[in-house]
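Structure in, sequence out. Go:
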């Protein structure tokens, strides 16, 4: 236990950053712990905002919901750039080329800032039109347009927070990425009630206060990341000259980022279509499905931590000219993920009813959520491998292949299968749940096949 505790503290401190030598199991643990905690912090932003905004009223919640729906575009581009940043930086670190890594980070910052300003500017100036387009009435627009403008004005901070976290993960500094999210969330949690309700000398801003607090929190997180990336004692150091446009690096960065963005959009769109199919069975079914998905998303955060750790290990080891170690690292992370999800799946299957009961006591809602959880659990063992191996391909710089796999499994198979099972074969809501389990199993099988072929080992980034 003492040894485990020391290793856990080492993971939090980030004492190791290069994982091209030594124990692979140790490397996975040191990388995944801060990455898991970082994922938890990212999910807290939305939870904290909704918690405080809900105390204002339904109209305020609707304003946040409508704005966040459109802001998905900003998030998807940020996630794509973050994926590309991890691939580029980890490869340079593995090559023992800190100057090249610094230049790559500089280009990531330049592109992130440029795209953030462009997207933020459009959202800021067309805030009223965005709310109107999303179905907001005149009163909601009048009361919520300030929130929308402020949130879109923070687009540069949103994109930079994601992409610089990706750079830090690629460099092996996952603990610093984690701390930046802790700092950003800490500021947001403290300032949200201050600006929303007007505490002390601060005037009451209502829903606008949520946007102000979130923007300040994210900006503080970004400033901390900038400090760590520009100091001389860091794993990599970004110089002012690294921000000068380098067309070859930018072209490479955007080429990889397109795949990462597409994967996020494909996955998001598939969930929207599934929700639309389930909506034909009534609000109780949608409510049960929503509860089940929220439970699943939160509990599999450690899995995403393991997947991101695998991406960093693959990138660094390919850069070090050790493709076999890169492959072993990915398979080892996938196996660990399988053990974790098997335990979670068993727990959900056996205790689904009391778990769902913590969120709702409507009999029909509970019944749907329990069935959804149990069916999804049957695909967990396969999902474990699909998540890690797809992210490993991303870490190698091959974002095109996972995108194609997602399109086939989610759009060509999952959505049509959900409709056929639910309506044509009259399975009802369980048909949609089974389509997810089947498509995730198919995705894992294809990812395993592609990964075994090994073409990802020859990708140049």
């Amino acid at each position: 236990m003492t040894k485990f505790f020391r290793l856990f503290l080492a993971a939090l401190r980030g004492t190791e950053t290069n994982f091209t030598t030594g124990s692979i199991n140790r490397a996975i643990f040191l990388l995944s712990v801060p990455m898991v905690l970082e994922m938890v912090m990212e999910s807290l932003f939305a939870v904290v905002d909704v918690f405080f905004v809900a105390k204002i009223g339904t109209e305020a919640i609707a304003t946040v919901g409508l704005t966040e729906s459109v802001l998905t575009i900003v998030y998807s581009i940020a996630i794509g750039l973050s994926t590309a940043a991890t691939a580029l930086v980890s490869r340079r670190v593995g090559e023992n080329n800190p100057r090249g890594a610094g230049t790559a980070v500089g280009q990531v910052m330049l592109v992130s800032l440029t795209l953030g300003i462009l997207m933020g500017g459009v959202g800021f100036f067309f805030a009223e039109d965005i709310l109107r387009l999303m179905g907001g009435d005149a009163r909601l627009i009048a009361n919520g347009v300030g929130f929308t403008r402020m949130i879109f004005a923070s687009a540069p901070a949103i994109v930079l927070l994601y992409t610089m976290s990706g750079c830090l993960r690629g460099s092996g500094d996952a603990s610093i990425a984690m701390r930046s999210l802790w700092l950003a969330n800490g500021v947001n949690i403290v300032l949200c009630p201050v600006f929303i309700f007007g505490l002390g000398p601060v005037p009451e801003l209502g829903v606008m206060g949520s946007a102000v607090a979130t923007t300040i929190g994210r900006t503080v997180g970004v400033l901390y990341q900038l400090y760590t990336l520009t100091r001389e004692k860091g794993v990599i150091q970004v110089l002012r000259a690294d921000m000068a446009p380098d067309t070859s690096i930018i072209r490479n960065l955007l080429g990889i980022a397109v795949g990462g963005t597409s994967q996020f959009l494909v996955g998001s769109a598939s969930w929207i279509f599934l929700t639309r199919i389930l909506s034909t069975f009534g609000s109780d079914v949608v409510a049960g499905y929503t509860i089940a998905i929220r439970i699943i998303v939160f509990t599999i955060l450690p899995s995403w931590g393991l997947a991101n750790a695998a991406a960093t290990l693959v990138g660094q080891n390919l850069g070090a000219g050790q493709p076999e170690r890169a492959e072993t690292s990915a398979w080892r992370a996938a196996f660990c993920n399988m053990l974790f999800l098997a335990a979670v799946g068993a727990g959900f299957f056996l205790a689904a009813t009391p778990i769902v009961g913590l969120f709702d006591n409507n009999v029909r809602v509970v019944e749907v959520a329990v069935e959804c959880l149990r069916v999804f659990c049957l695909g967990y063992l396969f999902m474990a491998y699909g998540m890690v191996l797809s992210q490993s391909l991303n870490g190698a710089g091959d974002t095109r292949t996972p995108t194609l796999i997602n399109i086939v499994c989610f759009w060509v198979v999952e959505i049509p299968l959900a409709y056929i099972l639910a309506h044509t074969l009259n399975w009802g809501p369980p048909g949609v749940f089974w389509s997810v389990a089947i498509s995730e199993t198919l995705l894992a099988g294809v990812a395993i096949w592609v990964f075994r072929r090994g073409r990802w080992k020859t990708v140049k980034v």
